[in-house]
Amino acid sequence: MFDFLRTRLREGTRTSPFPRGGAEFPARFRGLPVLDPTRTGPEGPAAPSALLTTAADGRPALDVGACLFSPEEAGTGPAGTVAFTRDHRMASSTRAGLVSATGEVELAHALDREARRLFGRSLRLRSVVAGSCGGCEAELVALGNVVFDLARFGVQFVASPRHADGIVVTGTVNRNMRAALENVIEATPLPRLIIAVGACAIAGGPFRGSPEAGRGVEGLPVDLYVPGCPPHPLTLLDGLLRLLGRLPAERLRGGAGERAMAEGAESVELLQPAGAVDAVAGEAVGAAGAEDSVKRAADVPRAARGGGAGARPLTGGER
Ligand code: SF4
How many CB atoms neighbour CB 301 within 10 A? Predict the structure, then answer.
């Protein structure tokens, strides 16, 4: 008994103080990508990346949801300089919130009052692995360890969709898994949340374009998009806490964040602008590629996709 107490005293508390600190990362950590269009260079070899895309106005834009966070995606090309910051905060409530001219992300905003009342202090999630490499699930498992300790926020994973308040989708949602995913969604009682974790679930990831791999959760009423390949556990945790309104409202700085706040969001915060780059590595990024799915997602109002608590059954068109 005394040995146990002695060990506890010697070891101290290993759980991260997050969200009140504890978000320090090593220099090699690749967080939120940013684009500085003023720093251009000669055309280099095109990187195999969907990160650089074309906005509706024809200008280059960064699609953080498609980012694989690989060194090859950073560098200087004709569209500007792409670099990685060490900012882990990048989960968004909308697909369009992950696309901007500089990499600025519209961070997730809190669910409405009723959904927060239902889920804010107790949320049970069912994981659906829909064609994943396993990396994203490893980070989901890490969320439960002593460092991140997801359960202290009242969030836990359960074995059955019938016991769940929402589902977490990882993987590209390949052809064989699409029907299984839809069955799990239908089996989850309303109101329910749908959370897309990782580049595969958001946009197909490195398997994008393969005839067997799907384009992730495209067409589903998603409540939270968590970029990464895989996302860092703190990126996931930050997004979840923002969604549940468990982070305090923070000071906003212009643009999309202010608009979201004006629309009633309580916990939105814009990230550092493109000038605040502290890590650049890798090859030049090639010319922008058109990305119509981003435009489509932006065109569909959130309410029409069953946003908020995702509180509606799938329609025939979504199946
Ligand atoms: S996003 Fe990356 S880590 Fe996650 S399943 Fe896809 S390839 Fe694996």
Answer: 9
* Spatial distance between the Cα atoms of 310 and 319, rounded to a whole number of angstroms: 15
DSSP code at position 112 = P
Least confident of 12-16, 56-60, 232-236: 56-60
CA 206 to ligand 1: nearest atom: 7
Instruction: State the DSSP code for 260.
Output: H
Q: In the beta sheet, which residues pair with residue 155? A: 123
Please tell me if the CB atom of residue 136 comes closer than 6 angstroms to any atom of ligand 1: yes
pLDDT of residue 165 exceeding 50, the answer is: yes
| Section 164-178 average pLDDT | 94
Domain CATH code at residue 239 = 3.40.50.12280
Query: How many distinct helices (H) and strands (E) make up the chain?
Result: 8, 11
**Ligand 1 atom closest to 199 (CA):** 1
* 260-277 tens-digit pLDDT: 444 444 433 333 333 333
Residue span of the structural domain in which 211 resides: 111-244
Beta bridge partners of 80: 77
Task: Determine, yes or no, domain membership for 73.
Answer: no
